[in-house]
Amino acid sequence: MYGLIFMGLKKYIDANLGANKWNNLLTNSGIGSKIYSYNSEYQDQEAVALVSMVSKLTGKTVPAVLEEFGEFITPELFNMYRLLIKPEWRTLDLIEHTEETIHKTVRMKNPGAKPPELKVSRLNPNEVVITYSSQRKMCGIAKGIAKGVAKHYREQLSIVEPSCMLRGDANCKISIKVAK
Ligand code: HEM
């Protein structure tokens, strides 16, 4: 995964577990002492190990930690890529256009970043369905980012996931409705 994600994980861990926990977590998850840099690519396994440690320490499930982390990191994604975000967009517009506008540009500009390919259907003005099938199986991050985007636009969402790779399905279908 991209260095940005690890730097975000450090900030999330500092904010939620205390600023002194990061080095212990690196050691206890078998990574050892390491400094991540924003623009480099690292093994997915390291992010999985760190998130599993957070899960053990907090009693939250791994998908719940990923979801919290996704929401936590969204303001940073907005800041770094704000030029890609159209001023007229709201939550569902941004999600609808993430693949062809945002993730595509992120992939082009940062070869170390491999954001997932999202398929998004806009069923009606108030509902999208995301089909997510990344082998990383981090649909929690998608749900968390969706929540973070809604927080940014001060909108209320309801999110359900009728199919999920973590339950053995071929892909995750994440249905997101905005309250009007
Ligand atoms: C401002 C908007 C966004 C930006 C700049 C952005 C950028 C990124 C970047 C840089 C990564 C890391 C890729 C890597 O580690 O190789 C990522 C991962 C991810 N993004 Fe986005 N993203 C945005 C919005 C969204 C939205 C709206 C969703 C879905 C609701 C989403 C879903 C994901 C997921 C699930 C991952 C990580 C898991 C995986 O790779 O399977 N992103 N994104």
Structure description:
- This protein has 2 domains: 3-60; 66-178, H-NOX domain, CATH 3.90.1520.
- It has a 4-stranded antiparallel beta sheet with strand order 1-2-4-3, covered by helices on one side.
- The longest helix has 19 residues, at 62-80.
- With 180 residues, it is an alpha+beta fold.
- Helix 3 crosses helix 4 (62-80) and helix 4 packs across helix 6 (139-153).
- Helix content is 50%, strand content 15%.
- Main sheet record: 4 strands, antiparallel
Shape: globular
CATH architecture type of the largest domain: Alpha-Beta Complex
Q: How much helical structure, as a percent, in the residues?
A: 40-55%
Secondary structure tally, helices: 6
Please give the CATH class of the largest domain. Answer: Alpha Beta
Total strand segments: 4
CATH topology of the largest domain: H-NOX domain
**Helix and strand composition category:** alpha+beta
| Order of H and E elements | HHHHHEEHEE
CA-atom Rg in angstroms: 16 Å
* Count of individual domains: 2
CATH homologous superfamily descriptor of the largest domain: H-NOX domain
How far is it from the N-terminal to the C-terminal residue, by CA?
A: 36 Å
Mean pLDDT: 96
Q: Could you list the spans in which at least 5 consecutive residues all have pLDDT below 50?
A: none
Order of neighbouring strands in the sheet with most strands = 1-2-4-3
Bound molecules: protoporphyrin IX containing FE
